[in-house]
């Protein structure tokens, strides 16, 4: 049941927090004098009744103070075969489990109803009330309680107890009917409650569940009643002979569209065409094709690919664009209206995982602005499909409507026609409309020929929807719909790239020229000014280790996960890595990653189970080094203000530029806080800590440890290749003929030591942060850098 609740909340995209098991303490309910939760849901009423100590009183008080209702579900009790009416804690209410129901109906005057519309009586013969034995019904003894739904008993209960008890069933508040869903209006103790006498498997309970959330949250958790939708008919010319549209089918399609427009103004089918296959059916079907062209102005058209080829088969963008243009010439010849700027890719290929050539050509050839896909982030679970924007093309999630290319005749529906009918009558198609404010449905040409299952399905779906809900269907052209989608879900604008090799379906629609072995095996994430360049250099000396190629703008660093480069996509990222040979280990180093909040999630999604390497030096020294770095880059503020002035500057008093410099000196040094952000996404065993002091004073030892942590089987001996250069004051690489090669001019820069007052100030400033780091590393069982040990004594 818990999963059912979570899936529903995820599907409607309400934010929630879950507590599992016995509740010993409540989560923080109040934040800045604001209530954090709009509704409290108990999967099991007894979890609430058994709250320990002050918890229940505190929760009740919270509900009264912040107008928050409580929702209870009764699933657990149905399992125990309790048939006797029991008191609900101290409430003037009894319940009885294991009751069999029939003739389930909605109380048409219940104030709870919002989306729910009292359709009719659900009798067991029309739509079976699921698990008829599992119902709990409520017996109220106070006028605060009113029925939300009512039902009759399917069979008299097998009560072996006294007659008096069975009388409770019908005599409570004088009701003849049983109450499976009950509303407490708060007249008893000031708290509104809804009791569900079953789980959420029955479709009607799902609708009522959303209404209960809205009611109990005083409207804060409410979806609007509008449902925007679009129906695509893909492959309009692609079907094999004997499965294609005839003249009558085309006429029926247009008639249905006209009919639909009565309820849904402007509704227009989107027809997807691959021009090559026109007139490839029987003679009669060619007449159907001609009819489509004749009525072309009555529909909206979108390009699908000239001969239904998949975009990822083309690596050469010019070739792909040329090929697309053939379909465009077809559209021009036949005056197909493609002004919707919408397109769909055969098999989703190239949309996700992104094939940048496809997006390039879509824009160039067709001026495409929106598309839809089922593949982002994954096909399943379908309620978690999302959208994103890449190169200004809106990708919005597509929903399945139980119709596929091969489902052409109702009586031959896979698994029996009941499967389709169930999906329409409260099942997945119904729920798609219920939960998603924006729906893009994909159907195929073959669903409109034969027995026109596509018309049947949506006709029935809409009748069912109008009968049982107050939802209003609205049509908007694709581009408007796309904009609406991202206005509703602005957090989805930015994509989060996943690893194509972790999803079989993604791998199938990924170019053969792309290969996950060219993703790095580990990433050095910084922070800046801790010796990351030296580490990068040392790692490259290793015969089997290779770094990313340099970037023309950011040099040795790719800076993919942290900044705008991320939106260039993984094709761009992969272009920085050679295809590794044999046992080469690839790595990337971008010191900007460490303290950027967005990085850990992105890195984990693209490179799961890969190590990250963090170098830690004394944060005071790091701050000073950053300051000196900025001076040598002629930063106006670093040149004008002393280090001490910089670190002690005050926001609101000193210039913004100085404050900004100060933050970039000081913020990365809160190592523990940043590490905790990483730990939200990356498991501790994948985080490697390098002692930055050791890397400087004994690099061979540090490199030995690092190789061990990375699990290298062959350890390269750095003491053979690194030699201390007295003149330079650091380690350099031994070259043939006794020469040595050192890091460039700018590295290992010389500058005066930090003055005492800054040193003292920073020691105090970072005292707590360093202690926190010490404890964190201890807890993670990570080696503690020497400098930190000293500080913590
Ligand atoms: C239906 O709900 C209304 C309003 O809450 C209530 O007054 C009425 O008693 C309910 N009807 C039944 C049959 O319980
Ligand atoms: C089809 O389009 C034509 C031309 O735009 C229009 O005159 C006609 O009314 C449309 N028919 C239907 C049924 O929408
Ligand atoms: C890509 O295709 C174009 C046009 O077909 C061709 O001229 C060009 O040489 C191809 N480029 C590569 C790198 O193969
Ligand atoms: C194409 O369709 C759009 C939207 O239905 C309409 O506004 C536009 O006038 C049509 N263009 C042509 C050339 O018929
Ligand atoms: C491309 O589409 C946009 C938005 O619909 C439109 O403003 C623009 O004029 C179109 N450009 C071309 C070249 O058709
Ligand atoms: C990647 O390349 C390796 C070696 O060339 C090959 O064995 C592997 O099958 C390729 N993987 C994919 C997903 O193409
Ligand atoms: C990769 O392995 C093959 C066969 O073992 C070998 O011939 C080749 O030289 C190796 N390549 C590199 C770059 O080490
Ligand atoms: Zn197709």
Automatic annotation (TrEMBL):
Residues 520-768 form the Sulfotransferase domain. Disulfide bonds join 732-742. GO terms for molecular function: deacetylase activity; heparan sulfate N-sulfotransferase activity; hydrolase activity. Keywords: Disulfide bond, Glycoprotein, Golgi apparatus, Hydrolase, Membrane, Multifunctional enzyme, Signal-anchor, Transferase, Transmembrane, Transmembrane helix. Its main location: Golgi. One of its GO terms (biological process) is heparan sulfate proteoglycan biosynthetic process. It is found in: Golgi apparatus membrane. Pfam families: HSNSD-CE, HSNSD_N, Sulfotransfer_1. Residues 1-216 form the Heparan sulfate-N-deacetylase N-terminal domain. Residues 226-430 form the Heparan sulphate-N-deacetylase deacetylase domain. One of its GO terms (cellular component) is Golgi membrane. The keyword Hydrolase applies. It is a single-pass type II membrane protein. Its EC number is 2.8.2.8. The active site is at 529 (for sulfotransferase activity). It is an enzyme of class 2 (transferase). It comes from the Eukaryota. Pathway: Glycan metabolism; heparin biosynthesis; Glycan metabolism; heparan sulfate biosynthesis. The keyword Chaperone does not apply. 3'-phosphoadenylyl sulfate binds at residues 625, 747-751. Belongs to the sulfotransferase 1 family. NDST subfamily. PANTHER family: BIFUNCTIONAL HEPARAN SULFATE N-DEACETYLASE_N-SULFOTRANSFERASE, HEPARAN SULFATE SULFOTRANSFERASE. This is [heparan sulfate]-glucosamine N-sulfotransferase. It comes from Ciona savignyi.
